[in-house]
Specification:
By secondary structure, this protein is an alpha/beta fold. It is built from 9 helices and 9 strands.
Length: about 280
Amino acid sequence: MRLFKTIAEIRAFRQECYRQGKTVALVPTMGYLHEGHLSLARAARKDCDVVVMSIFVNPTQFGPNEDFERYPRDLDRDLRLAEEAGVEAVFAPEVKEMYPPGYATYVEVERLTEHLCGRSRPGHFRGVATVVSKLFNIVQPDKAYFGQKDYQQSVVIRRMVADLNFPLEIVVVPTVRDADGLALSSRNKYLSPLERRSALSLYRALLKGEALIREGERRAGVVRRAMEEVILASPGTKIDYVAVSDAETLEPLEEIKGKAVLALAVWVGSTRLIDNLLVEV
Ligand code: PAF
């Protein structure tokens, strides 16, 4: 496996792939890899000849009081795991390679970013859309892989790809969970054993919402409140949002119909976790 730190190097690698007629997959990550990231790499491996993974903790998607500085990093471990998952090349640039002095260009996706995480993390999706656009331009992949755990992110990126005519396909891969249901996230590392137990309420709340809908409940407010109750019953939790939204527009629903997403963000101690489930009625 090869490690590239500069844009010029990964571009030269991409040119080599073009010359050899190889298709290229991109798996964008912020590192501290877990089974969720590796499932993206394995899916990419099945579809394309070459898998490129980017590992870059992107400062522009963190707010001023968020965890950019303390976000977990372990490049050596990541390189080992990426290689085992069939990644051919890792692109791990420094911040100044991606955002040199004088950097002034950002990508804004409207409307979709006003809901859910966009409300509590202003500027977050602007940072995500910007760095993902840059990665697409740098690596020029045929396909790019994202996890469903960041559902809103996947919807925003699909919109951006369509609107800005990026010539690539977005593939969204199902959330990977621990045996007890907790969605894998690099931020789970912050949780104490007690907090980890409380964090299980996120998935339990989603399952409760899904069960109510399966039993015929169509009032989004009733489903939302039932989900909130499950979370609040767990010690040390604080709800950021619990939403029942249209799966495409992300607008909040009153009546559940068509494709909907049950989505939530919850503080467990000082860690903000997100999760979601798609439902169709
Ligand atoms: O999902 C993530 O890890 C990040 O938001 C991404 C897509 C790598 C952009 O920094």
